[in-house]
Amino acid sequence: MSGFMHPQDLKLEDTQLTSAFANLDVGNLLSRMPAEIATRASEIVKDAELDDTEIALRLAMIAMTEAENRIARQEKRIAHLESLSVTDELTGLLNRRGFAERLQSALAACKRQGITGTLLMIDLDKFKAVNDTYGHAAGDALLITVARILQSRTRETDSVARLGGDEFAVIMSGADEDDAQARINALDHELNTRILQWNGSAIHLHASVGHDAYGPDDTEPELLDRVDRAMYARKQESVFADL
């Protein structure tokens, strides 16, 4: 019955509601309803062809319908808030928390069902220089560009995350080795050839990509360590290439 009640009256006991319907103290009941529901209810009350029982039943139907709608709105709001808690505000990708949850799920599925996959870690090179030279707005634009590249080069079933700063990750769950490698090669190429035009300047994107496959025996710390070391090795290669 709480669906048609004024928010301040949600703590009323069921006996009070029963009494209100039994005595049909309609005027008081309508005065305590939210305005949009009271309008519908008042039309029922004014219907001369309805007896007291029919009025009570129809008011109860309004109450139940509104209660269901209110619950649906609350569930939608909760789902939205939960989504925000695992989403990176700037890029719309998963954040570190969302990534951790997806990685745990992927490794659990691997142990239970043998669904193997590949984990990628991406770190932007010379990102601080972009911020220092062109400003943080340019840096943000570059991060968003990277996010769009990662999304375009991965499947809908993959999990793409921004872990913080200029560090990203991708979980390719269920991808066979050849498909994963082809996607990684395409992604690596685009991350190191894309140019961002910014206020008349050309900002060249550079990134180090480390990756490794995971299997049923892998633990989260071991996998993260392997991939992090692979990424660091790629970063060192790019440093020496610039010398």
From TrEMBL:
Gene3D superfamilies given in the database record: 3.30.70.270
Taxonomic superkingdom: Bacteria
Sections of the chain in a coiled coil: 57-84
Molecular function per GO: diguanylate cyclase activity
Start and end residues of each GGDEF domain: 115-243
Record-linked Pfam families: GGDEF
UniProt-listed NCBIfam families: GGDEF (TIGR00254)
Entry keywords, A to Z: Coiled coil
Catalytic activity: 2 GTP = 3',3'-c-di-GMP + 2 diphosphate
Enzyme class: transferase
EC assignment: 2.7.7.65
Protein name: diguanylate cyclase
